[in-house]
Design a protein that fits this description.
2 copies of one chain form a homodimer. The first copy, chain A, has 2 domains: 16-193, Creatine Amidinohydrolase, Chain A, domain 1 (3-Layer(aba) Sandwich); 195-490, Alpha-Beta Complex (Creatine Amidinohydrolase), CATH 3.90.230. The first copy, chain A, has helices spanning 28-44, 78-84, 112-116, 123-130, 141-147, 186-194, 198-221, 228-243, 309-328, 335-352, 360-365, 369-372, 429-436, 446-450, 481-490; strands at residues 16-17, 26-27, 53-58, 92-96, 102-106, 134-137, 152-154, 179-181, 247-248, 253-256, 281-286, 288-290, 293-294, 297-302, 418-421, 424-426, 457-459, 462-466, 471-473. With 493 residues, the first copy, chain A, is α+β, with helices and mostly antiparallel strands. In chain A, the strands form 6 sheets. Chain A has a 6-stranded mixed beta sheet with strand order 6-5-4-3-7-8, with helices on one face. In chain A, strands 9-12-13 form a 3-stranded antiparallel beta sheet. In chain A, strands 10-11-14 form a 3-stranded antiparallel beta sheet, covered by helices on one side. Chain A starts with 15 loop residues before the first strand and ends with a helix. Chains A and B meet through helix 3 and helix 8 of A and strand 4, strand 5, helix 3 and helix 8 of B. The complex binds manganese (II) ion (2 copies). One manganese (II) ion is lined by residues 296, 379, 420, 422, 461 of chain B.
């Protein structure tokens, strides 16, 4: 049943974004605070505020589906969303470096827009909706900036440390009359995004709660004979119906059986269409997006509702790694050391399970853990699911070896960083066969190991906030195997 | 309950695409037939087949989400899907103009792909999967073409008559060594796409059936107090769970009340978040996509499950226009004349309803119908929801006046064209106020008309095939108001 609770009464008169019903109300003051914090960081970085300098931002535009008459459903660019909360395409904005005043430039529409797309709003509508100081049309950018005597535009320009993509530079007719400063804004803005405000954390907590509930809904409905995409569909339906979340933060990864050992399964080349077979483990990595912000949660459970002995064995190894890391997270701890801690717990678990053997220091120096967890322990989370800033600050250089080379940050943790804790143990036959044929083989109990080749993998992913003293786990999915069995049993009676 | 029927047993040994369970099996022979038909059309257009000429196609690539580490979920480019049925990004292909032989170029992956994305398949896997004559890697395009002694590449290049976007030209290192022919392929290929094969029609019929069932599921669950997006979510969940349809053919339009009078409501600037209020009409324009092919269906119904008198009145006018058009469709009939027929039926209906008045010829010459239906009667449908070719063939030039100017084709109908029949009547206050203030006002009964300003709009959209003798309606949604009430009543008891 869709949720149709009445909207909460909000006594504050300020503008907010929400999807209605009981969905979260994001106050526009959150974005105003983001703007202030970025300006503060810019000035603290040594940039001299000037009445002739503004930070300049271009929001996203609709992207056509090739040369057809349809578009991909628009989603705002993350920096623009962070600073202005604008849900619509085609906007520009400035923040004055001296006064902090914000100017929004809104697209102009011809009369036909009102027939096809909806009401054409006045400039004051946009000013009220987004709580900015000034509003003009996009066509006026050059003249407004000239009238304001602006000469310098600070733009965001840097390279994403995960995708290696460069920022898309803003553009408008007349931009050549201004000095475009590509160097000073990137680091202050990204660093500000790394440390979340309390308002952002409450938003992320809510998205996590909705996404966690949706994962439970998936477990409740799961049974042998369904397909992976039917589980994906349950998740999507839940977050949209109950959370107003029209988008996911990333393509849903819904692998059962051997598919669960493909880390980023679910893409168009491997699209969640396997059948859930008796005895399979299911690995569900799915997170909602709301007002541009992301959740990133992974659950693993047996599709028939009952953990087999070996499923419980591997599950408990991964859960131990996750709990150990979460109990060690606090400001001042380096993420790379948390990754090593998770690897150590996994090694200990695999030794007890008799899958691997040998001296702990040797196991570490031969990178045996990465054969089973060939990815990083976790990554920043915010507007982007792999959020920005992982290799700024005091980051160590990206490691070279399997596993750690996929760490999306190596930084020292600070209060109000939000990061995922997602250890996993996977049995990836081609990787393990290669190890069995090389110098790592002396650490592997080949026969037992091979008996796991059809196992797939287990990942458990929580989203956590680094607090002053430790950690706050935002993810609320059940993690205890008995609790999961109990939830899944209900569907069967 | 998700549908988990067993896959149908298919005695043919040929390759096919399907999402498993009881979803449709699209034989790769459909694409082979498409290739043959395009080659035939090319030769019939006067192009001289040559052992040195191939048709050359570049499939779609993944599109990053701005500069982040995520991508929009890949969907294949329509011409590439039409000819090769390839679901994955990064492919190229050729069809030899003399032999008709097809060569597929598949992307090469590094070993890490197997960890993150899945099994790295052999070339023979792709040959079997897509039933092509030759398979090589993308990096080999230039050397393979040179070895085959190819000198001319025929590429698709033209302008979409709806979006005005130009085809994206293919590119690969070394393309400058070949003659690129941009002129000869576009029209034969597009014309072939306009006339659907029997296999394509059966596929479109199935997508229509799944989409129709999903519309019924929406009606069954609809009640006052829900939001528009909750209806959208029911549709999406239905088509994915039961049809394996991960994509829609276009952004869902789910407007209730006044929102139903916004023709392309539902986009990011107007995102289906209105609350369903007692007395509202709901207009649901939603269609699934499967293996690249589209459905496009609109239903309109009262959110409380009972048509009011005026809702039934307007509904019946629109339904009459739809039925009248469908009974007149046959080969040789010009689509522009069908548009005029729909307008005439709407005028007759609005006269009976006392909303407009005057002599029929005068009403027509003053374009009064377009005040209520300011869009075209329908458009070709196939891979694209607004399918290609509307202004090729014997098309008349696009009309200039409101309504007809939005016709996406004016052509004479031919057997196996697939087209939408989607008359509508909308009360768009700003449009009608303008009319009331001008020379059209003498045809309008102002008081009665104004009483409809909060009505919204009704559209009924069927997808039909032009047959040798008439029409085959693919859409299977209930259209009779009593039948709709009966479906919606069940939810209430
Ligand atoms: Mn993650
Ligand atoms: Mn349509």
């Amino acid at each position: 049943e869709p949720q149709t609770k009445r909207p909460r009464v909000d006594l504050a008169s300020s503008a907010f974004y929400s999807q209605g019903l009981s969905t979260f109300r994001v106050p526009m003051s959150m974005h105003a605070a983001n703007r202030s914090r970025v300006l503060k960081a810019l000035l603290e970085s040594g940039f001299l505020a000037s009445e002739r300098s503004v930070m300049f931002f271009q929001g996203g535009a609709e992207i056509p589906h090739y040369d057809t008459d349809t578009h991909n459903l628009f989603q705002q660019e993350s920096n623009f969303m962070y600073l202005f909360g604008v849900e619509e395409p085609g906007f520009f904005a400035t923040i004055h470096t001296l006064t902090g005043e914000t100017t929004l430039f809104v697209p102009h529409f011809e009369e036909d827009y009102a027939i096809w797309m909806g009401k054409i709003h006045s400039l004051s509508h946009w000013q009220t909706k987004y709580e900015v100081d000034h509003v003009f049309f996009v066509g006026e950018i050059k003249s407004v900036l000239s009238r304001q005597n602006i000469s310098e535009l600070l733009v965001v320009y840097g390279q994403n440390s995960d995708s290696h993509a460069f920022s898309i530079l803003p553009n408008f007719p007349g931009i050549e009359d201004f000095t475009v400063n590509k160097t000073d804004l990137y680091a202050p803005l990204v660093e500000t995004r790394v440390i979340k405000s309390e308002q952002e954390i409450e938003l992320l907590a809510w998205i996590n709660k909705i996404s966690s509930e949706a994962h439970v809904a998936v477990m409740e409905s799961c049974h042998v004979g369904m397909t992976e995409f039917q589980l994906e569909s349950i998740f999507l339906h839940y977050i949209y119906t109950n959370g107003g979340c029209r988008h996911v933060a990333y393509t849903c990864i819904c692998g059962a059986g051997e598919n669960s050992a493909v880390l980023h399964y679910g893409h168009a080349g491997n699209p969640n269409k396997g059948v859930l077979c008796d005895g399979n483990i299911a690995l569900m990595d799915m997170g909602a997006k709301y007002h541009g912000y992301a959740a990133d949660i992974t659950c693993s459970f047996p599709v028939n509702g009952m953990f087999s002995e070996r499923q419980r064995l591997i599950y408990n190894i991964v859960r131990d790694a996750q709990l150990t890391v979460e109990s060690h997270i606090r400001p001042g701890v380096r993420w790379l050391s948390m990754h090593r801690l998770a690897e150590e717990r996994i090694l200990i678990g695999l030794i007890s399970a008799n899958i691997i053997k040998g001296d702990m220091e040797e196991l570490k120096s031969h990178n045996i853990a990465a054969l089973f967890m060939p990815h990083g322990l976790g990554h920043f989370l915010g507007l982007d699911v792999h959020d920005v800033g992982g290799y700024l600050g005091d980051a160590h250089q990206r490691p070279q070896e399997l596993g750690a080379k996929s760490l999306r940050t190596t930084r020292t943790l600070l209060p109000n960083m939000v990061i995922t804790v997602e250890p996993g143990v996977y049995f990836i036959p081609f990787l393990l066969e290669k190890a069995l044929a090389g110098p790592q083989s002396r650490f592997l109990n080949a026969e037992i190991l091979r008996s796991f080749f059809d196992f797939g993998g287990i990942r458990l992913e929580d989203d956590v906030v680094v607090t002053e003293t430790g950690v706050r786990v935002l993810t609320t999915v059940p993690r205890d195997p008995d609790q999961i069995q109990e939830i899944m049993r209900k569907n069967r009676v």
